[in-house]
Amino acid sequence: MIFPTLFRTGQTSFDSRHSRILVFVLVTLFLVGCETRDHTNPFDPENPETDGHPRVLNAIAQDGSVLLRWDLEGLDDPLGLRILREVEGVRTLLFEQSEATGGEFVDEPLPNEELVRYHLEVQDPSGTWLPTEPDSATPGLTRVWVGDAVGGGLIRLSPDGRDFLRRSTSGDFLDMAVETDGSVLAPNWSRNEVVILDRDGEIANRFDHLGGNAIAVEENTSEFWVGSFSRGSLTRYNRGGDELAVLEEVGPIEDLEAARGNDGGLWVAVRFSGVLRVFGNSIQDRWEQFDWPVSVTEDPRGFVWVIDRATQSVSRISITSGAVVVSAAELGDPVDGTLDGDGGFWVADPGREGLVHLAANGSEIEFLAMGRVSGVTYDSRKRRLWTVHRDEGKVSTWTVDGRELSSYVLGGRPVKVEGNWP
Fold this sequence. Notes:
- By secondary structure, this protein is mainly β.
- It has 3 domains: 2-36, no CATH class; 57-137, Immunoglobulin-like, CATH 2.60.40; 144-419, TolB, C-terminal domain (Neuraminidase), CATH 2.120.10.30.
- Helix content is 7%, strand content 46%.
- It contains 2 helices and 36 strands.
- Strands 3, 4, 6, 7 and 8 form a 5-stranded antiparallel sheet that branches. The protein has a 4-stranded antiparallel sheet with strand order 11-10-9-36, with no helix packed on it. The chain has a 4-stranded antiparallel sheet with strand order 12-13-14-15, with no helix packed on it.
- The radius of gyration is 29 Å and the shape is elongated.
- The N and C termini lie far apart (85 Å).
């Protein structure tokens, strides 16, 4: 009973001194081990940059195939490498090579819209296979294009939104139209021209047009309209670049939407002048109650969604009666919108930092927190949301319940994402 007595009087016993010495030794050994451990090894689980799985493989989705690229720079002379394909949790060996070098490989044919995961492993001198960071891709027919507002041009992303495929031309592109065949029409604001790309992204035609920032393609013809904010004009063209009509002094144009159906026509959002409807080559209707309309979207159910940034509101115009109904949804700074395929409407609202989902009657259904979303497009066939985050220079894809599927940082200032959504 000596230990309790000594402990109570503040003295130190042999057992307590021994315990402290043991703890000191263990801590010293741990620190020495940490100092001698090679955390620069990319396969070390405590490497702060790799977490033990260096990223050397990039899987890029294409139509019916996946392009695999890998770079082994930074790895210490691995003896060999192998790549495994994983589908629905089942892995199969894609190929193996005795010499580990950088390279690329096209995995084809593959079914479109099926998620494929790839694992690249390298072999060390002991014969052990060391896994690197896996990568995934979903092949598809979709041609997705992004417009950049600070000189980055038109940028094509992979069909799953995970990778960059190509950059076609340069300049400032604030709007574009992607046709069902994958071709693209877009005004180049800084270079004062309109470009037309074929489905592979090659320039099929280009012609002069001053200050174009908005475009809409007519549904039943090969003609299209280009609007100019700075010039306040509307111009109608055919695919050859021939000027068919010009409407001057319309006002600073923010957005265009081609009317659906056999009657045709055009919806125009004009700063300070409201929403206009064009039939033929003249203005037929005007709704002046909108002070800063930035987006017009026609719904096939018979009305047009209008986003008014001045009043931070969304309204619906009845196509038959012209009546306007204002949504009661509380918005922070609505800037863009897209149909949800079921009569409702998604609103990109960087003020609320996410997407606001409205029902057909304009009431708010839900809010998805996604950060400062500045643009949105909905692929109704795959039920995927594509969002632009201008301040972060990125484009993301999401499920309709707000789960992020992919994110790609383009840099620059992306303002618009569009696709043919086959």
